Amino acid sequence: xxxxxxxxxxxxxxxxxxxxxxxxxxxxxxxxxxWYRQDCRKEPKLLMSVYSSGNEDGRFTAQLNRASQYISxxxxxxxxxxxxxxxxxxxxxxxxxxxGKLQFGAGTQVVVTP
Amino acid sequence: GAVVSQHxxxxxxxxxxxxxxxxRSLDFxxxxxxxxxxxxxxxxxxxxxxxxxxxxxxxxxxEKDKFLINHASLTLSTLTVTSAHxxxxxxxxxxxxxxxxxxxxxxxxxxxxVT
Lengths: 114, 115
What we know:
The complex is a heterodimer. By secondary structure, chain A is mainly beta. Chain A has strands spanning 4-6, 11-14, 19-25, 32-38, 45-50, 55-57, 60-65, 70-75, 84-91, 102-104, 108-113. Chain A contains no helices and eleven strands. Chain B is an all-beta fold. In chain B, strands 2, 4, 5, 6, 9, 10 and 11 form a seven-stranded mixed β-sheet that branches. In chain B, strands 1-3-8-7 form a four-stranded antiparallel β-sheet, with no helix packed on it.
């Protein structure tokens, strides 16, 4: 089993609709969680960190469920420009001077259609 | 603006030659940088962790003599693909993160094609 798993999609979403998808992780010691967005043939770019209490950034909402060991990302009022692959990143060790072990999901592809 | 700069963005080289890729942190000092490789439609795969002033830590299955990493300063790490072969063709990305568990920032990536 992979340490971080994502549904590869694609999720085909009509413009203006809402889409949500999860990322599961296997290591219960994981402490930090992030969502990155990667456009085709480009580097990943940080979309948002995921906090324990859940957090929102504009149309994007991230949630963390430690009991079931998954994080989620919800996109409201989808725009054509939201079409991308969304990577979840999980870090198992958190110290002030170490990144520990970062694990990447394979990504979930979202395609927003007119 | 970018906080991690990677150069070159793309390179085409002949089989058997070596290619050097640079990764620079622009706004902060990075004692640790990471090198990844990504094949089409696959996830990022960590190749190695680059440590300033010491040897890099390579992931299992990554040949340290083939992928030479040098982290000579707090703002620069280099990855040299030696004796490149067509199967080394891939998207190579570096990243660096600040302290206190701040998120990673990625370089813009280097698309390597070995002919």
